[in-house]
Amino acid sequence: MGGTFDPVHHGHLVAASEAASEFDLDEVVFVPTGTQPFKATRKVAPAEHRYLMTVIATASNPDFTVSRVDIDRPGITFTVDTLGDLTRQRPDEDLFFITGADALNQILTWKSSSELFELAHFIGVTRPGHVLDVAHLPGERVSLLEVPAMAISSTACRERVETGRPVWYLVPDGVVQYINKHQLYRQPLGGAE
Ligand SMILES: Nc1ncnc2c1ncn2[C@@H]1O[C@H](COP(=O)(O)OP(=O)(O)OP(=O)(O)O)[C@@H](O)[C@H]1O
Ligand SMILES: O=C(O)c1ccc[n+]([C@@H]2O[C@H](COP(=O)([O-])O)[C@@H](O)[C@H]2O)c1
């Protein structure tokens, strides 16, 4: 599952759990992005913090792991490189790339988009308020999955922290504590959001 995870929240975890159950996946690998091409001008927490919050959030689930491939690769993060690295690490495994409906909707604008469908099967998880039209995507390599409605976004979590409101129960307890310990999201949000 690829995402910025700034911070990871229960919407991500429910979506991952639903995808694993519906598609009978052995493992869900969370892959925090380095610099997401469409978020390059936005202020994003340092990759190491986003990575560690994702490790904390997934620690209790033996089927969830976190990969550093995107944060350790210099430059902009492109999914074609993510899937290339994961394929090299796991040559015998079938890869599924889980991402949100909003992200999948734009996939034809991603780098090397035609190659992507050869590297993985894409699972688009629907989130409240986003309608996904995948008629333009190859049907045999794209699936949609409705997850229980969770109107949580990382943007809302950051805004709540910035304005002194709680994020308990929107993100895992350990992530609340990590945010407090490192004083993340206390400054006004920057960039084009
Ligand atoms: N509540 C949710 N339910 C289902 N999918 C979600 C939910 N929140 C995020 N996702 C999906 O998970 C993927 C990774 O999410 P991302 O890290 O961008 O979080 P986000 O909450 O969308 O962040 P932001 O608000 O900063 O844009 C995205 O493609 C997104 O659509
Ligand atoms: O490869 C691309 O060109 C590309 C462009 C935009 C987004 N992505 C990937 O889409 C996933 C969801 O991104 P995000 O930040 O919107 O959650 C994440 O893994 C990104 O690296 C990939």
UniProtKB/TrEMBL annotation:
Entry keyword Chloroplast: no
Query: Which Pfam families would you find in this protein's record?
Result: CTP_transf_like
Q: Which GO terms describe its molecular function?
A: ATP binding; nicotinate-nucleotide adenylyltransferase activity
Entry keyword set: ATP-binding, NAD, Nucleotide-binding, Nucleotidyltransferase, Pyridine nucleotide biosynthesis, Transferase
Which pathway is this protein assigned to? Cofactor biosynthesis; NAD(+) biosynthesis; deamido-NAD(+) from nicotinate D-ribonucleotide: step 1/1
Query: Which InterPro entries would you find in this protein's record?
Result: Cyt_trans-like (IPR004821), NadD/NMNAT (IPR005248), Rossmann-like_a/b/a_fold (IPR014729)
The Cytidyltransferase-like domain covers: 1-160
Q: Give the UniProt family note.
A: Belongs to the NadD family.
**NCBIfam families on file:** cyt_tran_rel, nicotinate (nicotinamide) nucleotide adenylyltransferase, PRK00071.1-3
Stated name of the protein: Probable nicotinate-nucleotide adenylyltransferase
